[in-house]
């Protein structure tokens, strides 16, 4: 079984590759607001994933030490998603709201495909 930190490190590599593709799309194509929204949303999505990994490690430690476990930080991750949407709404000439929301889900799609590939190999 892989640790969450190993999975997160692999996710970071995939995320930065995808972020570079979004940056190239923003620079070379005419769909600047869409790619800017994808960049904004996926950045906030990766931040949310980082928060989840950090909280899960604390949760695991609390369980193994038989202490009371705190929450996994759903409120903070939800507020981060709202902040990304608020930025996209306040700057509609710069960011597309729908692509921002899609971008919020990019790290989880990357995680899903990574898990499919990992379990397909083993």
Automatic annotation (TrEMBL):
GO terms for cellular component: plasma membrane. It comes from the Bacteria. This is ATP synthase protein I. The chain crosses the membrane at residues 12-29, 35-53, 74-91, 97-118. The keyword Lipid metabolism does not apply. Its main location: membrane. It is found in: Cell membrane. The lineage of its organism: Bacteria, Bacillati, Bacillota, Bacilli, Bacillales. It is a multi-pass membrane protein. Pfam families: ATP-synt_I. The keyword Lipoprotein does not apply. InterPro entries: ATP_synth_I, ATP_synth_I_Bacilli. Keywords: Cell membrane, Membrane, Transmembrane, Transmembrane helix.
């Amino acid at each position: 079984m892989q640790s969450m930190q190993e999975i997160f490190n692999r996710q970071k590599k995939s995320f930065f590759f995808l972020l570079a593709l979004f940056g190239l799309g923003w620079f070379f194509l005419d769909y600047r607001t869409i790619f800017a929204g994808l960049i904004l949303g996926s950045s906030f999505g990766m931040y949310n994933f980082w928060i989840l990994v950090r909280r899960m490690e604390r949760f695991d430690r609390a369980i193994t030490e038989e202490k009371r476990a705190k929450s996994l930080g759903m409120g903070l991750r939800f507020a981060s998603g709202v902040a990304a949407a608020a930025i996209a709404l306040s700057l509609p000439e710069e960011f597309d709201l729908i692509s921002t929301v899609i971008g919020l889900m990019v790290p989880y799609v990357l995680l899903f495909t990574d898990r499919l590939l990992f379990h397909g190999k083993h």
